[in-house]
Amino acid sequence: MVDWLGRVARTIRPGFGNEDLTTVSMYNDPNGTGAGQLRKTYLEVGAGMIGSATLYEYDALGGVSRSGLDVDGDDLLDTNSLDRISKTVVTYVTEDGGLWRKSATLIYGTDANGDPSGTAIATNVQLERLSGFSGTVTRETKSRDIFGNETITTVDTDRANKIVTETVNVPDSNVNAVRTLCNGLLVEETSPTGVNVTYEYDGLGRRTKFIDGRGKSTTTTYDALGRVETVTDPNGAVTAYAYYDPDGVGGGRLKWIKDPNDSYTRYAYDGNIPGQPLYRVWGDVPQPMELGFNAYGERTSLKTYRNTSTNWSGESWPTSPGAADQTTWIHDGPTGLLTQKQYADSKTTDYNYTPDGRMLTRTWARGNDRVETAYSFDPSTLDLVGITYNHDADVTPGVTIARDRLGRPLTTTDAAGTRTHAYDPNWLVPLSETYDGSSLLPNLVVSRGYEPTGSGNVPGRMKSLGASGLASYAAEYRYRADGRLDRVVGPGLPGSANDPNTGAQYAYIAGTDVVGQLEYRSVSTGGALLRTTRMLEPNRDLIDYVENIWRPGGSSATISKYDYSNDALGLRTGVTVTSDVFAAPVPWNYGYNARQELTSAVRDANSPSLRREWQYAYDPIGNRVSAAEDPSPEEYDEFTLGYVANNLNQYERVNLFAGAAPGAQRLLYDADGNLTTEFAAGDMNCDGDVTFADTNIFVAKIGCPNITDCNVPCTWTHGDINGDGVLSWDDIDPYIAQLGTAGRKFEWDAENRLIRVGPLHATPAAGDVKVEYAYDYLGRRIERRKYTWQTANPPASWTLAESTRYVWSDWLLLMELDGLQGNAVLRKYTWGLDLSGLNGAGASGGAGVLPAGLTGAGGIGGLLAVYDTNGTTTGQNPEADDMAYAYLYNANGDVGQVVDPNAASAAASLVARYEYDPYGGVTALSGSYAARNAIRFSTKPFDPATGLGYWGCRWYSPKLGRWVSRDPIEEEGGVNLIAFVRNDPIYLQDGLGLDVVGRGGPGRSQCKSSHTPIKPRCADCASRCRESGAQTALGQDEGGVVCFPDGCVCACTNDSRHDPRDYEPAATAIRDCVRTHEEIHIDQQGIGLTFCLTDTNQGGPPRIGYNPEDRRTAECEAYGAEVLCLAAKLSTCPDQACRDKVVRRMKDVVGWACGSYHGLECSSLSLRIPSLYSLPDDVRKKIVRTCK
Asked: Does 730 lie in the same domain as 628?
């Protein structure tokens, strides 16, 4: 609906629950400041307003000067209130010999309810030089962040040679970032860490060569239509691409990819649905799947296949693919919100929403009443403030969050107790979390420290992690002049923060950001105590070897060295482990199938006494079909396991066919996919054990199902121990072998977190063990309790034997406390760069955050040292028996050795050593600290009572080689929700139990799905997007979907990335349309296409990746919306200059969408532009010409 001036007054769209949502827009009077411009918007359903109104104020030139959420509802933006206000001040200043346009963005960050002292804080200041240019400089800008750090960008134009050079002087490095363009093409760039790369192009402007910082080239060729045809890596391995006919189904999109081993990944598209979404994926490499979509492009089904007899390698989809396991998504018709997800067993998860799309309830399948989670919101701000469960409150405590003016948590109450969050009043960064000691965690303050202004370092750069109160902790981080992490000092490490020659120190491989050396240095020894050297292959950024050396500057000895070999795909095909202190060289060889799953691992094939071999076979979706182990020494029998997977890809049965007497393990799950029971086949009375009490039932049921009581008291299949499908006399010998075997049960809370593991039998026996776990609101384990069944002092009972409590900063475990000894400190841990940082991603520390490389891989490979009090608390600090040990790793981040850097010799330093099977089970350990240390495979803690490893968001079973619950992020982590790292544990890792880090996949930092539609738009995005956290999250991107800690999202634009020369009105139009692009991504939630750029309280972790075809679908649609938005904006331009700039932007957007540079190659159809004739003629022609 429009008013009499043609302005939009009311926009009505469908809401959830058959409600109409109305966005009301109100305007200023025609006279005065802001004449006729938008004054107020709010959302209403029926006659009631949802949340608060957003108000706008204008300056004398008609630009928005203030905007914000009217929290107190007085129709004014009050500084002395809790209104969430963003302010823009534009002035003109003289500086550095010229006139500059200065735009400052300010917010009111402190609570000032009724206090007129509320002050504005400048979060970002942008300056654009208007005059006084020197030499060939054609543009100069300055950007000052909330900490006062200044970034200066200059553009030099050499018109004669058609070269443009952009130089960025960044505050956190002494190296300028430089980009050089020739004829508009990027030909060279240097990063702020000094890594220089170059690009070459053909006569059509297509990139043909990329030369990395080590001088290694990757080349690209194109077909006649300009599509990528081949990519050749620096080692000569060629990946080829083919495409469908532009005029047929598929519309010129990707048809297949052929990897360097001539294995294919094939794609097919659905020509019956607008946009022709990806329909089928099959071939040698991928897990075959078939996707279904509705007319709106929302994913409605996913079919996967377990049939091992189907040939998936053909050029076309098999005519008889076999039975499919189907997952179904049901969407609300008017809104598209996901209302139900139905798994292949017909069990469902259900979702209910407010009319504006905020999730009200989530209902799991299990339980008589079904486990339900309810979410509550602040009525004014719509911030998430409470989470409650219909589950036992002692099992899953509710969460209560009180928030400040900016929506940040002020207090959080959960199983850990009540914590108070404190923030710097000027920089707005988090300072501390104070626990009140009312529940599991004691009185404790967990803090962060930042470089102050005037320190000579980068103001606001995070420099420390600490804790004080009942337990103390301190770790310090220092940086190189180029901004990368230089050294770490903390518990268990030698030296101090004030001594630059001590601690754990990093060095980087020339021409890369990859760590090449890590030394543990101490003044007392005059040099390095330990040195880890990491070397890359000559032609590829793959690890060639990792060497851990004792006393490298003196009488050195190799503690361990891992020499790797890699094939054309980058798969690790072998490693040879050598050492001067513990063993002769041990070679390993690995084999893979076309899906790049590990199929064999052979240890020392030429030595009969050391040889050991594992073999694996999988079905098409990644479930094990069989596994075999040939242990050493030779007199041990080889044994073979067979796996029976159901339609949910869960192992229901593991059969032992050879080796020891045949037997079987049975596995049961609840309706939400959590493992609940492990028991041995032969448990005929379902009491959890196989005892002589089962014998009479076993004998009576032989021949079932031909007698009436076959399934009383348990199903007859419990007696089918040899797995041949019948209960017969052939099962008698394996039944006898199972006698005495006990089962165990697993219990879960309302967030599908493991809370208890104990014996299955109803009456415990002497010596039985039970463990329990508790978690905080982020899903971090905060307590482990171990009980033993005591019978010595009647009555028999469970007796608490251990209580370990855990203190975290984000996902870094800082301390373990003894809950039975007044929360005395057991261990302290110091963390450095994990595999993400070690391998070149996120080693630099920006203002306000720790380097992303500390947590990008979930800490794997990043634990530097442990300080262990040895369980004694005499009050001395340190105590005589305290232990300070360092961790040494292989290239995969598995703890290989733990050493005492201060020992008298290399041999004496080795306090723990581990060997693993391919899936992380410990096959050998030695050393005085080996059993005590819980941090092992993938740098994760393993519970000796259960054999499970804790990854943060899930628990892992090395014995099964998979997780014991579904992926919390659902299909975002892969279509097999239980498989571990795509069945390649030799090279890949999973940071938190969510998705793969390593080859082809980034890490995740939140234990929840980002596409599950529990993320509504925030009510106050205008102010939130200007916060430093959001701007930091956007990095160098023009815009993105940003998640906020309270569970809502915003489509944000980057204040520092838009050309200041295009200020009003063209810049506003361009920014608005970038925002429209990102709004489309928010609307795509629930169909697996869109993910948050980052979460503002996680310090900018690696962003989430797309399936390539999902990414194409999402981005093509969003780019199409952006083009249409720009077309509409043309009518708002007051002059030709504005129109020219908007049209130029439209051409750029079309080029990005349809060209090969971003790898999208959108078609005209996939852009979803209803009418090309709504566009300017030259843009329409460009689409027709460029978008095949």
From this structure: yes
